[in-house]
């Protein structure tokens, strides 16, 4: 028997008076946090939530997310965390796809309409009987006539006998971004969640003295695994900020003596290009900050080295997907780091690079990355055919192109679906982006393929210039011709002010392709 809510329960028992969460200027001890999660669980059970039900959770990085997340797990139900940027159509799809019994939705604000979108989605859902708001003010009991979670918790006991589940039972459903059609829900079990929390804590040498800044959204597997679950299991302190902002990040690091920071490449890029750092005590920040982790997408070597030089802390890169509970490989603390590599397989996980016939490839040869081990999902929710397809040969097929070196370190080349085929030659956008990052005027780039009558596809680069830089697109093309093979360099360069980003900070190449198809370039 195993219920991964023991992640919070255990620390509440052994470190109850320690600070678990700092959010919105308030400190929550482990004991207080666990009592609130128990109240929430009692409220859910009284409303009719049972073991095996699914409950959708739409909330930014607030303490209510943590309370709801573990409260749902305590009841034996499964959590379905969803992006706060979701629209009613997307929320309706998830509710219907999971046959959700309830939805818990943040009220939103003037700039964030998630509450309105959630209410609309709920009104259209025939099969979901319960809706609760997370109010902007935690003391509010109703919002527009709808019960807030405080009402659910009011009068409920602060103790709860956790419903025991089996290790393989459903705990969390994480929906993918849906770049190839409708989103699909990766089913993570209690064992997936618990073992990856243990692994993440071990890899970062996390302990009770650590203070982790959570700027990544906790509805995403990266922050959920590496920070929320691992951090609470280790008894450390989590500082929550609702949205990433370089100034707010540095302010929080300074004020709370942050020791651990996790980010995606675009966050590190923003920190590198942030001009207001001088107003913070960067020496103090560097003294306390012992480790930065990067994941979600491969980080540019130029950005990694630039951030390390500017802020004086080490960044270790890892690799994982929602389907692998965010963990597959990592650059170990106590082993040589290889810049540009996503490291070695983590404990209990096997990683191979294979050809189209599923034969393992030798070091230096590119192929698809496949994974098996304790972190790998059970499958896609109610998608048996798709599950069978991605588990060909007993391995989970990531769709990522990679290669290993002689020491077993993995290098991610690109997504299989992002690969450009120009005149019969394979072009990997990330490789082109790495080269463009060395141009003295380019700050960030995203490379995609566009249809071409003669070559099938042509290479197009969207670029953001550095502050104060002026360079013509034609000049970048000419420079690229000198730096890259003839089939790789971008023949088309479009200088832009910004790139579309997901809620987790990934460049949305799907949107860039949509602009191309619509003739918006």
What is the helix tally? 16
Determine the N-to-C terminus distance. Answer: 56 Å
Molecular shape: globular
Strand order of the largest sheet: 2-1-12-11-13-14-15-16-17
Mean pLDDT: 92
Rg estimate, integer Å: 23 Å
What does the secondary structure layout of this molecule look like, with pairings?
Layout: H1 6-14, E1 19-23, E2 26-29, H2 30-47, E3 54-58, H3 63-74, E4 78-81, H4 88-98, E5 102-106, H5 114-124, E6 130-134, E7 142-143, E8 146-147, H6 149-153, E9 170-175, E10 185-189, H7 190-203, E11 211-214, H8 221-234, E12 237-240, H9 246-256, E13 260-263, H10 265-272, H11 282-288, E14 291-294, H12 301-311, E15 315-319, E16 329-330, E17 344-345, E18 349-354, E19 367-373, E20 379-380, H13 384-390, E21 396-404, E22 410-415, E23 420-422, E24 425-427, H14 429-436, E25 442-452, E26 456-465, H15 473-483, E27 492-495, H16 509-517
Parallel strand pairs: 1-12, 3-4, 3-5, 5-6, 11-12, 11-13, 13-14, 14-15, 26-27
Antiparallel strand pairs: 1-2, 7-8, 9-10, 10-20, 15-16, 16-17, 18-19, 19-21, 21-22, 23-24, 25-26
Helix pairs in contact: 1-2, 1-8, 2-3, 4-5, 7-8, 10-12
């Amino acid at each position: 028997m195993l219920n991964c809510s023991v992640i919070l329960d255990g620390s509440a028992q052994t470190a109850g008076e320690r600070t678990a969460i700092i959010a919105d200027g308030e400190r929550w001890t482990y004991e207080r946090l666990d009592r609130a999660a128990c109240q929430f669980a009692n409220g859910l059970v009284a409303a009719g939530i049972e073991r095996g039900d699914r409950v959708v959770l739409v909330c930014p990085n607030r303490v209510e997310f943590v309370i709801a997340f573990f409260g749902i797990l305590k009841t034996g139900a499964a959590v379905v965390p969803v992006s706060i940027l979701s629209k009613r159509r997307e929320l309706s799809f998830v509710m219907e796809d999971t046959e959700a019994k309830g939805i818990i939705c943040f009220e939103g604000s003037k700039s964030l309409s998630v509450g309105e979108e959630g209410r609309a989605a709920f009104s259209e859902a025939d099969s979901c009987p319960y809706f609760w708001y997370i109010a902007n003010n935690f003391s509010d009991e109703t919002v527009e006539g709808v019960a807030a979670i405080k009402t659910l918790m009011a009068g409920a006991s602060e103790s709860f006998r956790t419903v025991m589940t089996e290790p393989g039972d459903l705990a969390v459903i994480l929906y993918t971004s849906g770049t190839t059609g409708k989103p699909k829900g990766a089913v993570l079990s209690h064992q997936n969640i618990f073992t990856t929390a243990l692994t993440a804590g071990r890899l970062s040498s996390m302990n009770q003295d650590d203070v982790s800044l959570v700027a990544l959204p906790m509805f995403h597997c990266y922050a959920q695994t590496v920070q929320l679950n691992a951090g609470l299991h280790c008894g450390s302190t989590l500082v929550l900020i609702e949205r990433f902002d370089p100034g707010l990040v540095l302010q929080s690091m300074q004020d709370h003596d942050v020791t651990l920071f996790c980010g995606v490449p675009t966050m590190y890029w923003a920190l590198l290009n942030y001009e207001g750092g001088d107003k913070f005590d960067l020496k103090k920040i560097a003294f306390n900050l012992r480790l930065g982790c990067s994941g979600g997408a491969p980080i540019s070597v130029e950005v990694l080295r630039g951030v390390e030089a500017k802020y004086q802390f080490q960044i270790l890169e890892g690799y994982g997907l929602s389907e692998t509970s965010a963990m597959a490989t990592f650059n170990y603390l106590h082993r040589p780091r290889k810049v540009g590599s996503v490291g070695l397989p983590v404990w209990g996980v096997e990683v191979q690079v294979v050809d189209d016939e599923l034969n393992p490839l030798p070091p230096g040869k590119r192929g698809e990355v496949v994974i098996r081990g304790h972190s790998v999902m059970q499958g896609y929710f109610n998608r048996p055919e798709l599950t069978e397809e991605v588990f060909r040969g007993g391995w989970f097929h990531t769709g990522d192109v990679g290669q290993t070196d002689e020491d077993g370190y993995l290098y991610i080349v690109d997504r299989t679906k992002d690969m450009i085929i120009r005149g019969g030659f394979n072009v990997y956008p990330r490789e082109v982006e790495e080269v463009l990052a060395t141009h003295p005027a380019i700050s960030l780039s995203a490379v995609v393929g566009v249809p071409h009558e003669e070559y099938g596809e042509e290479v197009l680069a969207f670029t953001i210039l550095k502050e104060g830089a002026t360079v013509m697109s034609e000049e970048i093309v000419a420079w690229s011709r000198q730096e890259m093979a003839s089939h790789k360099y971008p023949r088309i360069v479009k200088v832009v002010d910004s790139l579309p980003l997901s809620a987790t900070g990934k460049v949305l190449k799907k949107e860039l392709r949509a602009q191309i198809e619509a003739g918006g370039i």
